[in-house]
Write the structure tokens for this entry.
Amino acid sequence: MSRIQSTFARLTNEHRKALIPFITAGDPAPALTVPLMHALVEAGADVIELGVPFSDPMADGPVIQRSSERALKHGVGLAQVLGFAAEFRQTNAATPVVLMGYANPVERMGLDRFAQDAQAAGVDGVLVVDYPPEESAELHASMRGVGIDVIYLLSPTSSAARIERVCQAAQGYIYYVSLKGVTGAGHLDTADVETAIARIKARTSLPVGVGFGIRDGDTARRIAAFADAVVIGSRIIQEMEAHPGQEVSRVRALAADIRKAMDA
Amino acid sequence: MQLNDLPTLPDERGHFGPYGGIFVAETLQAALEDLKREYFKAKADPAFQAEFHRELKHYVGRPSPIYHARRLSDELGGAQVYLKREDLNHTGAHKVNNTVGQALLARRMGKPRVIAETGAGQHGVATATVAARYGLECVVYMGSEDVKRQAQNVYRMKLLGATVVPVDSGSKTLKDALNEAMRDWVTNVETTFYIIGTVAGPHPYPMMVRDFNSVVGKECLTQMPELAGRQPDAVLACVGGGSNAMGIFYDYIPVQGVRLIGVEAGGEGVATGRHAASLTAGTPGVLHGNRTYLIQDANGQILDTHSVSAGLDYPGVGPEHAWLKDSGRAEYVAINDDEALAAFHRLCRTEGIIPALESSHAVAHAIKMAPTMAKDRILLVNLSGRGDKDMATVAERGNIAL
């Protein structure tokens, strides 16, 4: 059983939902990435999504874009991100790490080398935002050999046919993008999200997480009532931007608050 | 794959060999499926095609003439240089062929709002123009660096009723404007049609933009025999994203004996690293929804590009060009800033035509080639735009204060 599977199995037994925070590797500084990952786990995170910085993050809003730009200024690329994952794995053998990013850095490294290095670093899943199922046969082939899950997005605009196709291809969990638009956008209608999650769950036995637009414990709690996981990204990055020098402690406190609300 | 098969590309999923495709997040898939379906319907609809060609004739001023640049040819002492005069179109460049087509499609799809990205501002102006013509709301994204450099075009767009949004992210240039336009589209997809200005982006854009611009090459196929008694030995066009080049190349792909030569921006010289020559010096990767040649670093980050011509200042290139390069059907070369500027001045003085700095790259390569060829050989250059917009840049380069 993979780390992602056993994490969701444990949570099901405990009648709890997964908290999946997102941070961009290397932001605000490379030295803080691994401490942030550990702090998130201590605060109750179940899976860590680690963003791979990219110069042109087309699907992200201004917050994650800024975060990517800061990481790039520190020269953080895919090789360094794999280094952070490996360092985290030295003292944490249980928490799944999912790399989230764009196709170009992965293609530049080469899919097979990426697969081998990601496995060696203890990575559990990859979510390549601009690799839809139609364009990811090669990614699947590379990842199959090393037992890393290929995770996909679904969105409010996904047709029934696309939901079916993504559910066929998906591994690990499915990430439902709860808003039209980019990361960190607008206001969330939880009733709409609940309907969509039901539609997806009718077609897959994989856990379904919800992200985009979750900004506080209350929303997280309402989402956790019907979803298997809650993903929080932009809100965490904003917390760091607002409190330079106290990033690790502020992020730990924020994640703990959300965890508490989800478990209440 | 036979060369004769090339015009049938892309395949159903938008691939030109290994290039092209639909590399976008799930959030955009539905919009692209819609667009593809509606575009294929419109393409097959005689009423849509008739309206498109009526607009090209009466609003744009097509067909554009081909002009034999006799004085320039005599000076060069070799091949005869002919110019396809896209600079004479309404708005001053080939860009309007595509924006008319996409705006008609937007109207057909019931979208009241159009958005566009722009670098130098030419595509922004062409989009603002047709938005005014068809009564559509128009928002143009433009890198904040470009907004500063192209104040006249910003004002032009505003005169035409468009809203210009400066983009402050990344390198604050064309590629960032494209990222931001994509973000707008994904957020406002029900009401909004995204008019991409070049033969790049996710399928069906490279195909659709090529189709709308292919009127250029179609006209040449008829005009060259009328004017010169035969087809040219080579067709030359500048390549940034590559829309004017695809427009003139496309119908020539199956024509044997006609070389297709794309001229990229060599900036300060390809060897200096400060250029925008993706096909000449780049490597394949994925950006802006398609796989193509990119200017990138060892980590797969997209690099800043450099060219005196803002319209060629783009780190990618249309995927069909990538395929034409690999298949050998087209050749790609680079012309440096100073060579393009020299060609700009030379065409001004020998023919009384002020070319766009973009098009000056193609003229510069013709100036290099012609003297090596016999006098009965023919070079057809796509003069994709006029240079009025470039007065400030050219004056500044000559240390002249306007």
Q: What stands out?
A: Chain B has a mean pLDDT of 95. Chain B touches chain A at residues 13, 21-27, 29-31, 33, 169-170, 175-176, 179, 182-183, 186-187, 189, 283-289, 294, 296, 298-302 (CB under 8 Å). The two ends of chain B are 54 Å apart (CA to CA). The CA atoms of residues 78 and 294 of chain B lie 35 Å apart.
